[in-house]
Design brief:
This protein has about 220 residues and is of the alpha/beta class. It is about 35% helix and about 30% strand. The chain is built from seven helices and ten strands. It is globular. The two termini are about 15 Å apart.
Length: about 220
């Protein structure tokens, strides 16, 4: 379970303060696919950064399981991001000089998993996301956008995270490929009991998600469970 209680995030901008997330309280169960919708500037990406501990809230509490991540030291936050969070980006953010297989193995190397185990798990995850064996040795530049996103999803799952944060995961994909990626994410959330939180402008994704909530000016304006 992910819980946010009265979470506020403010930034200094020019001569004043901007409230990117404004007194947000919400609970998201484990193993669900959750969509976050809202216009640009509504606080969606800031929310992902707070949950992923890339930034700290100005006030409020964020709990993952029974752990209050707002109280963790910097060293424990690094471990939290490594072990409990997977990130999927709109632009994929794959390492260009590494193969698909090596990109998925990389997070496991940081987690000190042995080489044979890293490779076996990476092959298994790439198979789960629909990558065929002949594509595993290819570098990102030799893969289609949909294939790169599949590799990015496999990489996000590498260390068995509790939560995957996806920032516009279909934004650079055509409609049919985007639908396949969303169905894949929903299926993986159930198989791995992983909470997937996807920021999106696509109302179609929101309608098919297990739950969805709408942000406006940093505030929660509606929720569907």
């Amino acid at each position: 379970m992910l819980k946010l209680e009265n979470v506020v995030k403010e930034f200094q901008s020019g001569g004043g303060r901007v409230t990117a997330v404004n007194d947000l309280t919400i609970s998201i169960p484990a193993g669900v696919f959750c969509a976050v919708i809202g216009k640009s500037g509504s606080g969606k990406s800031t929310l992902l950064s707070l949950i992923g501990a890339l930034d700290k809230p100005t006030s409020g509490i964020i709990e993952v399981g029974d752990e209050n991540i707002t109280k963790l030291s910097d060293s424990k936050l690094i471990k939290y991001r490594r072990d409990k969070i997977g990130f999927i980006f709109q632009n994929y953010n794959l390492v260009p000089n590494l193969s698909a297989l090596e990109n998925v193995m990389l997070p496991m190397e940081f987690a000190h998993i042995k080489g044979k185990e890293r490779k076996a798990r990476a092959v298994e995850l790439l198979a789960q996301v629909g990558m065929t064996d002949d594509k595993l040795g290819r570098k990102p530049g030799k893969l289609s956008g949909g294939e790169q996103q599949r590799v990015a999803i496999a990489r996000a799952l590498a260390n068995n995270p509790k939560i995957i944060l996806a920032d516009e995961p279909t934004g650079n994909l055509d409609t049919s490929t985007g639908k396949l990626i969303v169905e894949l994410l929903k299926d993986l959330s159930k198989k791995h009991n992983t909470t997937i939180i996807a920021v999106t402008h696509d109302l179609g994704i929101a309608r098919t998600a297990d739950m969805a909530f709408h942000l406006r000016d940093g505030k929660l304006v509606s929720i569907r469970e």
